[in-house]
Amino acid sequence: MTSTRAQMSTTTTHADLYSWLDAALGSHWAEAGAAWWTQALERVGGGLSGSAFGATLSVASRYAPRVDLDPGADALDRAHEILPGWNPERWDVLEATRARLLLARPDLEEDSFASDLETLCQHADEGELRAIYKSLALLPEAGRFSTRAAEGCRTNIVPVFESVACDTPFPFAHFDDLAWNQMLIKGLFIGAPLVRVVGLDRRLNPELARMALDLADERRSAGRPVQPELWMCLGTHGGQRALDSLQHELASDHTAGRRAAYLGLARAGHEGLPEPDHQLSGVHERTLAGDIGRRSFTLLED
After folding, report:
1. 280: containing domain
2. Do 274 and 218 belong together in one domain?
3. What would the pLDDT profile of 204-252 be if each residue is shown by its tens digit?
4. For the purposes of burial, counting CB atoms within 10 Å of the CB of 230, is it exposed (0-12), middle (13-18) or buried (19 or more)?
5. Is residue 183 assigned to a domain?
6. Structural domain ending residue among the three candidates 175, 195, 223
């Protein structure tokens, strides 16, 4: 792991995470569920583990409202301060409840917790999996769970995949190049929003570019459009093959694809970008402003 990557997984205290989650959850607990919540935290903090802990995570769905957590701008800024790259903007209350229960375990750094977490993932339903995967970056020595997270990236269930790959610094900090590249290509296959992959621009590499270009060729051969987000996986890698493929896309009649290819050429440092037509005027303005990071790939459709 490079020092740059390590900076995005800065160690934080459990107290900061407890405080953030408790504050975010506080206004959402109905009086009827508050008693269960207090008791659940006490039981987990007292050493609840194994199947009993799994049952507590499961039964949380009876008490935690299934609504957006909606933490607010100030709370989101604080979340990023606690753990750079962490964005719980899209969390719901049930996911936050389950995350807080995980963090309440007194054995977080012990093998017993790691064993329980693996068992939980093997038997969890979709909602439980989302909560567990979203929580991985918050755990001490989170890199222990990189194999489990990589396994989660094999799913075809987009919300579960997003829980591993998006709005979290975990893959950037803890995946090796193979797992990182496979995650991004899988995301393209299933239509996940790669624009929300933290650190994507900082881990572009020649092998990822090759894999993305292979996928573009496959889709064209099958008469299918290339996903616009594929072009953010190239950067300055891919050589002449990348430039040819981007030019090919720029000549297509796929509006979002043309705009993404234009950005892709700018990201590649290609000189002499074509004169923009009405479809490309918006992205041309972005490139003039130097706005060619991964977030520039939003709003490509009319």
Report:
1. 204-297
2. yes
3. 999 999 999 999 999 999 999 999 999 999 999 999 999 999 999 999 9
4. buried
5. no
6. 175
Beta carbons of 172 and 203 less than 8 angstroms apart? yes
Domain-located, residue 190? no
Q: Say yes or no: 66 and 141 in one domain.
A: yes
Give φ, ψ of 92 to 5 degrees.
Answer: -110, 170
Secondary structure of residue 116 in the 3-state scheme = helix
For residue 275, the 8-state DSSP code is: P
**C-alpha pair distances (Å), 100 with each of 44, 52, 138:** 10, 16, 10
Comparing CA positions, the residue from 133, 104, 117 lying closest to residue 21 is 104
Residue 184 lies in a domain: no
Would 144 be classed as within a structural domain? yes
Specify whether 169 is located in the same domain as 209.
no
Q: Do 25 and 71 contact (CB within 8 A), yes or no?
A: no
Residue type, 288: L
Q: Which two tokens stand for residue 165?
A: 């790959």
CA distances for 297 relative to 96, 176, 214, 294, angstroms: 29, 25, 21, 6
Number of folded domains that form the chain? 2
Taking the CB of residue 55, how many other CB atoms lie within 10 A of it?
A: 11
Whole-angstrom distance, CA of residue 41 vs CA of residue 34: 11
pTM reported for the whole predicted model: 0.93
Half-sphere exposure of 155 (CA within 13 A, CB side): 23
Residue 160 and residue 226 in one domain: no
Instruction: Determine the Cα–Cα distance for residues 172 and 157; give it in Å rounded to an integer.
Output: 21
pLDDT tens profile 105-154: 999 999 999 999 999 999 999 999 999 999 999 999 999 999 999 999 99
